[in-house]
């Protein structure tokens, strides 16, 4: 009987603020990764404005309010432009890429924890 209760509690993971927040974070980080890839692909395109993805502040506020779900916003970078009108900086994009990859890995490991518990509970039965 105890196993059934654990399994049912594990299914509540899908509706928790934590789960919604992790899903929003993963979506935001994936969008940021695509924006970085586009920025790098256009590093030599005259007039191209780098894109930035922001969601962390909105996500923190949503979690504090008990929601946990936000949509990431993409905006043009306000960084200074080069003579050709582009503002893509390869060093900035590379560092942002590394940061985003590490955050995504951390988030996926954190998000998988409850599912590993559910898998263990199901195997134990």
UniProtKB/TrEMBL annotation:
Coiled coil residues, start to end: none
Start-end of Polar residues biased regions: 71-88
Localization of this protein: Bacterial flagellum basal body
Domain of life: Bacteria
Assembly description: The basal body constitutes a major portion of the flagellar organelle and consists of a number of rings mounted on a central rod.
Function: Structural component of flagellum, the bacterial motility apparatus. Part of the rod structure of flagellar basal body.
Annotated family: Belongs to the flagella basal body rod proteins family.
Record's protein name: Flagellar basal body rod protein FlgB
Lineage, highest ranks first: Bacteria, Bacillati, Actinomycetota, Actinomycetes, Micrococcales
């Amino acid at each position: 009987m105890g196993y059934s209760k654990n399994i049912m509690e594990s299914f509540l993971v899908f509706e928790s603020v934590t789960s919604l927040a992790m899903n929003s974070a993963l979506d935001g980080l994936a969008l940021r990764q695509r924006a970085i890839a586009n920025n790098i692909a256009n590093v030599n395109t005259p007039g191209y404005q780098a894109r930035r993805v922001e969601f962390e502040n909105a996500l923190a506020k949503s979690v504090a309010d008990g929601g946990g779900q936000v949509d990431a916003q993409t905006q043009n970078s306000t960084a200074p432009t080069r003579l050709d009108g582009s503002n893509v900086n390869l060093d900035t994009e590379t560092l942002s890429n590394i940061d985003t990859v590490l955050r995504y890995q951390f988030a996926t490991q954190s998000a998988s924890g409850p599912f590993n518990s559910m898998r263990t509970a199901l195997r134990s039965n």
